[in-house]
Design a protein that fits this description.
single chain; two-stranded antiparallel ribbon; globular
Length: 408
Amino acid sequence: MPPKRELPTTPGRTTRRGPRRVPLDTSQPSENDVTPRPPREAPPLSTNPRPNAPKLEHTPLHHPEDSANTSETSSKKSRRSESPREARFNLMLAETGVFPVSIDAGDIDFPAAAQALRRDLAHLESQRGLVPLSVRHLARDRLAFDHDDPYTGQESGPPGKGGLGGFEMWQRICEIQGAAQECYDEDCPESTWNMEVHSTLLRTALRGVWRSKEIWYRDITSARISDGDLLPKVAGLTRSKMVDFAIIIKPAFLSPFWDQIRHKCNELPYRTINQTDATNVRRVPIAISLEVKRAGGNEHETLVQLETWVTAHYNNLKVLTGTVTREPSDVKMPILPLIQIQGHEWKLMIAQLMSDRDMIIVHRDIPLGSTRNILGIYQIILALQRLAKWVAEEYRPWWITNVLGESG
């Protein structure tokens, strides 16, 4: 048998142990030179190695912020333990119950202002005469109209100071339709819909003549109901996020109306004239509220938010007019329009407080239009302008007379 060949040992030779290079220590015996020994036995595990120490429960490792996240999650779960459908049913059982009804329910006494709104919006629903004559040639190419189309016919009269003429309006509507289709196709979140579509649509509809009449809008996505006493007396309801936009009355700076509202705010505990103390609407009366959900969102959740919000709105108007008690009052509460937006579709609801019966009737499902197509957006814009007319001619005079005690 040939003698075993020994490899020469090179000083500084290294061996790999992971990423580090560790020099070999030749002064220590190699594994082959160490006398074999039996392995040492590990001591038996004890559930409590120290007899006097308290027994510890096993808990998973976590970061400090996990505790806050866990409590927040459990809080959300407790708030959401009640389904939106159950919450809507409980709203009917509140002290001032909220009862949704069909707009065509014949056994409800529909106020005159609501009847006029319904009639005019039904006319827009036919989509006849929506497109201005000045852009008929563009509409014919884009929408494949024939020579006898019923959709054009609206005169492109003066748009008012800062308003859009026929061609500019057409361009803006085409941009809105493109943005809405992009948001829908890419399943964008509500915040993107609000920024790209809804805010642009509201601004387009209200600029010009209606803004000059102090009718404008606000993004109130982060607004909360300021006073818990304004909420419906239903267990489980919170002051969480309610609605996304509001159409408001925006008094001119330093005008008498502006000054009266400023003094009124100083008399109130939350320094706000609305049911929320969000800073951007403290001194501008909210007239119409809008709630947004993506296509396929929970419609019952949308309705719970709007019905809760409008209850707080009416309760706040009672506080402002001094009619909180159940005693008969000469103050007749106005209707309050609400707009439900789900994906492309816009619908109107009209709330009506029936003080003699301690209930709020919500007339539902009045179509306002759709952002799916050009005609639907024209319909929405004209519907918003009709609602702005109601704010200017009905709600604003009521508010000045009954809240400020001045002649409208």
